[in-house]
Amino acid sequence: MFLLILIFWSDNWEAFTKKLWDYLSMLLLHISDIHFKSPECLDVHQDPDRSIRTRMMRDLAEQVKEHGNVDAILIGGDVAFKAAKEEYDTAWNWIQELALSSGCSKKQIFVVPGNHDVDRSICKDQVPTQSAQTMIALARPNEREWRLKQQLEHEESGQSLLAPHAAYNDFAAPMGCQIWPDKPFWHQDLDLGNGVKLRIYGLTSTLLSGHNGKDDVKGSLYLGPRQTALDPEPNTVNLVLVHHPLDWLVDEDAVDDALSNRAALHLFGHKHRQRAVMAADYVRIGAGAINPSRHEQPYQPGYNLLNLEVSGTGQDRHIEVNLMQRRLQDAPERFVAIANMQGGDVFRASIPVPEEAPLPNLKVASPAVGEVETAIISKDLASVVSEKDAEAAMGEPNTRDLLYRFWQLTSAQRRKIAQDLNLIEEGEMRLPEPERYGRALIRAGERSLMNEVAAAVANLES
Q1: Do 400 and 323 belong to one domain?
Q2: Short name of one Pfam family for this protein (predicted)?
């Protein structure tokens, strides 16, 4: 009997260890610059870029056989080419194909905007948008942060600044990755295991993109400190997903310092150049374009696979990072591995994530006489903490499933749910839907009403 068990065990050892590895690690697919361009992309038989995307999917399917299913897809911007609705509709169909071929749930897809996700015609033709961008772009360095805050907090200017992202926001809302004036970036949590959370920050480098309808100039874009606060919570690994690399930002040095100190993983797009910096405390990765311009030289479509595994305990706990970069070669036309300096196929890093005690819970007691002002400040702080946690929780699988189902309802059905549960505040009905219901869903999380939202969605689906 023992011999039979041993034979069975040895025959299945490879499959067993592969399943165990898949369970203990997280595989991320990092892609960028897909550039769905209409009208060409609307006909699969005449889309000159379709073949490259198909080859990429087939190569990815082979990688999945070796490394396991993809757990999340991170898209670094430039999904569209001119921010047209039909480009996003076509892109979404392909992205679902990509998820299916990689074994990834379509609910585990995250995205940030790129410069091609900005409607430049709005930047060119709408004076309020021109004015908002110009006020920030021409501000003195010591006033730029204040100017951005001023424009975002002004009701009309804030909406004007985000207006060129309207089609992107419609596309991104089911993923919980839309942006609005007082939330120009998003963050969501995934469970890495072993007591560690992966917090994905989707930053927006495109608030000034398309200024006056023109191409962006290197060094002219702006993130600002509110996007790089990146709260270093205990037992949390911060991953930053952003379209533009640092040298495209006017606040390059400040952003570099913030990311280097507060985030372990930095993922960029835009340049169409695959690069990897495997430092002691962080990993910085550039994505190749899935579909660069066919006139671009060298023409090198590419994608990244990033495997994360938490190992060790206590002060010796680390996150092991294995990066595999794949690039198209032209003859024969197929994707191949980019070699590291030692000739291997994997770039490796080990980043310390020592175990830390959780922060104390914030408790707000009823104020005693003479303590009213302090209590008000504490309640405001409690609200901020609650909102942050509610948005981060959008990364949970059940919640992401609910997001997709909610956004598949009609506009009238979404409105009914939000109003029935009192999730819409005064004046919010005039906001764009991605912002209106994005606020409502976060509010539902803050008020512990997500089960009620789920029940209402299920009732309308039946």
Answers
A1: no
A2: Metallophos
Residues 6+ apart with CB under 8 A from 429: 415, 436
Place of tokens 């990509």: 98
Give the structural domain span for 415. Answer: 372-461
Residue 312 CB coordination number (10 Å): 16
Does one domain contain both 32 and 108? Answer: yes
In a domain, 179, yes or no: yes
Q: What is the total count of domains within the chain?
A: 2
Backbone phi and psi for residue 337, each to the nearest 5 degrees, phi listed first:
-75, 145
Please provide the size of the chain in residues. 462
Structure tokens at 362: 């914030």
Q: What pLDDT digit, counting tens, does each position of 288-304 carry?
A: 999 998 888 889 999 99
Evaluate whether residue 357 is within a structural domain: no
Q: Beta strand pairing status for 302-311 and 283-286? A: unpaired
Instruction: Tell me which amino acid residue 84 is.
Output: A
Query: What is the CB-side half-sphere exposure of residue 294 using CA atoms within 13 A?
Result: 7
Look at strands 196-202 and 318-330 and give their pairing.
Answer: unpaired
Q: Give residue for tokens 């948005």.
A: 391
Would strands 275-278 and 236-241 be described as parallel, antiparallel, or unpaired? unpaired
Closest CA to 222 of 119, 148, 322: 148
> Tens digit of pLDDT for each residue in 92-114?
999 999 999 999 998 899 999 99
Please name the residues in contact with 271: beta carbons below 8 A apart, sequence gap of 6 or more: 245, 286
- What's the CA gap between 228 and 243, in Å, rounded? 14
Interval 242-262 mean pLDDT: 97
Residue pLDDT, tens place only, 338-379: 999 899 999 999 999 999 988 776 555 555 555 544 444 343
SS3 212: helix
Q: Is residue 20 one of the residues assigned to a domain?
A: no
